[in-house]
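Researcher: Please generate the 3D structure of the following complex. Treat every line as part of one assembly.
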Amino acid sequence: MPQMNSAGEDDLGASDEMISFKDEGDQEEKIRESAFTERDLADLKSSLVNESEVSSHPRVPESHPEAMRRTQDAQLVYQDKLTDHMEDGVKHQDEGMYKGSGYPSYPFLMLSDPYLSNGSVSALSSKVPVVQPSHGVHPLIPYNNESFSHGSHSTHLPADLNQKQGVHRPAQTADIPTFYPLPSGGVGQISPSVGWQSQPVYPIPSCGFRQPYSATLSSGPSYSRFPHPLMLSPSMHTTGIPHPAIIPHSGNKDIDCYERNMKPHSEPKREREPKKPTIKKPLNAFMLYMKEMRAKVIAECTLKESAAINQILGRRWHALSREEQSKYYELARKERQLHMQLYPGWSARDNYGKRKRRTREKHQDSSSGGKRSAFGTYKEKDDVAAQFLPMEVL
DNA sequence: CTACCTTTGAAGATT
DNA sequence: AATCTTCAAAGGTAG
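Model: Done. Output below.
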C-alpha cells in the first residue's frame, strides 16, 4: 500500500494547499461567511476571467499565518489517522469529524443514504436506471443538501453510515472479478465493498442519463453519469461492469463512456471497439469538491461554462473551512487508496499523452513567471481581468 | 470534431 | 530535492 503512510499530510495538500491559501489570506474568514454567488456573478459578468488572483497576486509563501493555521489544524484533524495509516488507512474514518458524516461506501449496503433517504431509490431496485449522484455529488461525500460550501455544518448524517465495509480488507477475493475487469494481480486484493465504493467516484460522462443542471440536482437523487452497478440490469454486473475509472479509449471521451453497457438501445451502429480501456486518475480533493458543487454553482449563477464555474469553485474552495476541505481531502485519499487497490499496476503515466496537449507550450510560457498559469491564448482576456482584479478580488 | 479554457491536487518526469 | 508537466471533471467555445 504505497503512500498510505504519508497520506495524512499529503491529503491536506500540504504544499499547494498552503500556498493557495495564501492569496485568500485574511479575507478568507470574512469571505467564508458571506454568500459568494452575488460576487461571483458580478465578477464573472464583468469579466469572464477575473479570478486571476493567482496571476496578479502571486501565491504567498507558506509563512502566511492562515496557511499555518490550516496546516496545524489539519494535523489535528488527522492526528489519530496518522497513527495507524499503515495498518488501516480508513479505520478511523468514523471518528472525529468524520463521525456520522461517514462516507457511505456506496457499495451494496450503502447505496448511499443520500438516495435512500429520498425514499425513491432503493439500493437494490433495478428499475432505477442509474443512480448516481449527478455531477456534483460524490457518493462518498456526505450528501448534504446544504452542502458545506457556506460554512454550514454537514458533518452529521445518519449514524448508519458507519463504513467499516469501505475499509480495505485485503484478504477477500470474493466476487470482485465478476464486477470489475480488474487488472490481473489486483483482483484478489479487493473486497467487493471496496470495489463498489470506488465505483461512483469515477463519473461516466454523457452516458445518456444526464439531466439539465438544476438546483434540485444536488438535493435529490441525481441520476446521471454515475451508474451504480447495482442499479444496472442484472446481467450487467456479471459481465464485468467496468470501473468508472475505466473509460474505453476510442477518442471521444464523452461518447465512449460506458454507454455500451448503459445504453444498449442507443448507438446501435457503434461497433464495439475492443480497445483497451483507459483507467482514469482518481479524483483529487478539489475535483471531488467540484463534482459536488458544480451543479449548485451553475444553478446559482446560471452559468454553464465550466471554465467560469471552475473559477468560482476555485475561490470557494479556498474559502472553505479547514474542516470542510478536510472532508474532501479525506475522500480523495480514499479514492486514491481504492484506486490503488483496484488497479495495483496502474500509473498516472499510463494516461500520459492521451490528451493531445498543446497546453504544454502554454505552460512553458507562463511557467517562467508564476507557479501555474494556463492562460496562454487568453492572455488578453487576463490582462483585462487584471484591471478588475485588485479591487474586485481583494 | 476536438482541443481549449479554468480550477486544484496528485503523481510522474525532469532538472 | 526542487521544479515542471500531465491529467483528472466539465461544458461552452473556437478553430
